[in-house]
Amino acid sequence: MMKQYLEIKARYPESILFFRMGDFYEMFLDDALIAARILDITLTSRNKNSADEIPFCGVPFHSAQPYIARLVEAGHRVAICEQVEDPKQAKGIVKRDVVRVVTPALVTESESLIPDENSYLLALCQQEGRWGCAWLDLSTGEFKASEEDSLTGAAAMLAAIGPRELLLAEGMRKELPEELGLLHGERTRSSVADWVLDKDYCSGLICNRFGIASPDVFGLDSLPLALLAVGMVLYYLQENRHASLPHLRDISIIRKNDFLALDPATRRNLELTATMTDNKKAGSLLGCLDRTATAMGARTLKQWLSYPLVQVDPIRQRLSAVEELVEQGLLRDQLVASLKGMHDLERLNARISMAGAGGRDLRALHDSLERIPLLRDALVGVESALLCRLLEQLDPLLDLQELINSAISPTPPFSLREGGIIADGYNPELDELRSISREGKGYIARLEAQERERTGISSLKIRYNRVFGYYIEVTKSHLANVPDNYIRRQTVATGERYITEELKNYEEKVLGAEDRICELEYTLFQQVRETVAAAGARISRTAAAVASLDVLSSLATVAVERSYCKPTVDESDCLEIIEGRHPVVEAMNLGERFVPNDTRLDGEANQILMITGPNMAGKSTYMRQVALIALMAQAGSFVPATAATIGIADRIFTRVGAGDNLAKGQSTFMVEMMETAHILRTASNRSLVVLDEIGRGTSTFDGLSIAWAVAEFLHDDQVCRPRTLFATHYHELADLAAARERITNLTVAVKEWNDQVIFLRTIIPGAASHSYGIQVARLAGMPRDVIERAKEVLKTLEEGEFEQGSPRLSKSSIAPPRKETAQFTLFEQQGDLLRERLKKLNISVMTPLEALNLLDELKKMA
Q1: Which amino acid positions bind ATP, per UniProt (predicted)?
Q2: Which end of the chain is more exposed for a tag (fewer CB within 10 A), N or C?
Q3: Known binding residues for ATP
Q4: Structural domains in the chain?
C-alpha cells in the first residue's frame, strides 16, 4: 500500500494527497505533518517505535469537504485519490488514482464558495509587450478571453477580475512584473510548463474541448495571445480536473473598446466593489446598489459595475428596462417576490454537469424552476426591449420539473449510496424491492410472536447485527425449552443466539433486496442527473435571464427608494448633472443632510473645472460623485441627481489620495507622478479625469509648477483633451481661467464665524482665497499651543516677512544675519493677466460673497 501511495504522490509532489482507504482519506509522511497542524486533527503513526515509523492522519470521506476547504484556504492544493475499482472484486491491493486536484479556483462545492462572488482562474501570458488573458469560473462555466497591448492593460484586467488563482507559464512565474504581483497579493499562483504555449498545441486543446474545427469559431484567429491563454486554462483543467466538463460550452471574447476602461487606481479610488480601508463590500458602490435577491444576480451586478458599457444603444436598453420597473411598482414587487428564495441556477447547473450534484441539488433546481412561470406571468405585457428579450429567454423547463418531481424524493438524503433518494412510484422494480424490504420487518415481527407461542419462551427475541445477520436470542433460564431445529451460533453473557433455516432464507431475501435497492437507486439517479445535464444549455440561458432581471429589479428598487433619476446618455462631450449627490455618502448616516451640487463639463467653455476650497469642505466627495454618476449611467443604472446628461466616456481616470510603494522604492510623490503621467499619456478627448491635489508631495514651488503645467497640457494638447475635475490648494491655479478659455473656476462655499469655519458643502463659481487648514487642524484635536503658533507663522508668511534664514519666523534668538535677497516672481506678465481677468468679469450677476473673494484675488494678482 505504501508503495502505491508513494508512486501516486510522486506525480503530485506539490499537493497534499488525500488517499482513500475504506471510509477515510489518509495522509502520510510530510502531508500528515502539514494537515494535522492546519486541521487540528490527531497525528499518529504506523510502525511505531521503529526505524520505519510513518506519520499519518485521516478524515472521514463522507465529511471531508470542510477539511479540504481549510487546506485550500491555507494555500495548499489537495489531490483526491479514490479507489477506482470495487474492493469486493479486487485481486490484491485495490487500484487507486487521483480523480481531481482541488485548488482555490477549481473548487465547486457550494460550502467552499462565496455565493455572491465569482471564483476565477485567470491565465496570463506575454510576448513582445502584448498580453493574453483568459479567465474561467468553473463553478458557473463562465469562460472569457481578451488581449491587451500593454502591461497597464493587463494590470487593469487583473484588477477588474480579481481572480482567486493566477495561472502563469513557468518562466513568467519566476519573473512576474511587480505591478501584477502587488495587485494579486498573496493569493495562489500556479503554473504550466513553457512548452504549453504553442499555438498549434493550444488550438488542438480548444478544438478537442469544444468539438469545433478551428478556434476561429470563437473569434480567436486575430488574438494569438488570447488563444495561448485559453490553451493554458484548458491544459490546467486537463491535468487537474479529470472529469468531463460539459458546462463549458463557449468562450466570450472581451474586446478593448466594448467597455469603459478603468485602471486599478481608479477602481480603488472610486471604491466600486470594495472599500479602500478594509476591502469590504459594505461602503462601496456595489454595496450601495445591491438589493439583489439571488446569488447569481449579485455576481451579475458586480460585473455590470466592473465593466460599464460604452455603446449608447445597450445602455439605453438597460435604462429603459429600469425605468419601466421604476414606474411599474406592482411588476417590480412581483419580480422581487418570485426571485426571493430562488437557488443559484448557475452553480447548480455546473455541479449537475460535472456529476457532482446530489439529490438535494436536483430538488433545489426543481424548486427554482417552479418560480420561472411566476416570473413569466409578471412580465407579460412589458414594453422595454430588454425586458421583452429576457421574457423570451426564460424557459421553465417543464420536462425537467416533471422528471425531477417524479424521480427524486422530496427530502433526499445527503448520501447517494444508501438509498432513499428515488421517489416511490418512479420505477416498478424498485417499488417491488422496497415492498420486500418493508414486508421483511413485518415478517420478522410475526415470526417472533409465532416462535414465542410455539416454544413457550416469552423472552425470545429476534434481532439483527451486521456480523451475524438475523438471529434468535434466548436467555439462560429458558435454554431447556429450545427446539431441536434451532442452530446455535454464539454464546453471550445472558444466554445463547440461534438461527433457523427459515430465518436464514428470509434474511438472504431481505438483505439482498436492500443491497439491490441501493444499487438500483444509484443507477436511476445517475440516469436522471444525466438527463438534466443534457439540458444544461437551456438552464444556462434561463439562469442568465434570471440574473439580469434580478439586477434590473435591484437598480429599480434603489432608484425608487433614493429618488434617483434616469440619465440621458448620448455621444456628445457634455456631462451635465443637476443637483448631483454621492450615492454612497448620501446613504450613510453621517448626522448632516447631504448637499447636492450641479456640474457642467464639456469640450468648449467647461473642459476643466478648477476647484479650490478648504480641506474637509467636500471637494473630493464632489469629484468622486461626478465620476460615479457617469459610471453608474454607463452601467445602466439610474443616478442620484435631479437630472443628468452623460456624454459617453471611453475611460475614467482618478489621481486621488496619497500612498507610497515601499516594495519598489517609490515615494508617495513618485507614485503620484507615475499615475499622473499614465493619465496624460493615455487619456483621450472622450475621457473623464479626476485629479485631486497634483504636486503636493514636493516643495511648494515645484508642486505648483507641475500642477500648472499639467493643467495647461490637459487644456492645450490636441490628442489628450479630456473633461477634467482638478482640485487644488494652489490658489494661484485659479489664474489659469483668465488665460485659458476652457477652464472654469469653482470653489466650495464656507462661512467664518468667531474664528470658526462652517462648511456649506456648496460648489459655487469663483476661487478660494484660504484653505482654512489651521481650523481643520483644530477640529482634528491638535494641541492648542500648536494651533496658536501656527496662526503666528501664517500671519508672518501672509505679510511677506518670511525669507529663508530669517529670524522673523523662528522663535530662536540666535540666527544668522539676514541677507537681502529678491524673491523672483513665479509668473510673468501679471499685469496682462489682471487686465484679462477684469475684462471677463460680469459684475451684474455677482453675489456679495463672490465679489469679496474676487477683490481678494485681484489684490493678490496686483
Answers
A1: 613-620
A2: C
A3: 613-620
A4: 2-102 (3.40.1170.10), 110-258 (3.30.420.110), 290-397+535-562 (1.10.1420.10), 428-529 (1.10.1420.10), 568-782 (3.40.50.300), 828-862 (no CATH)
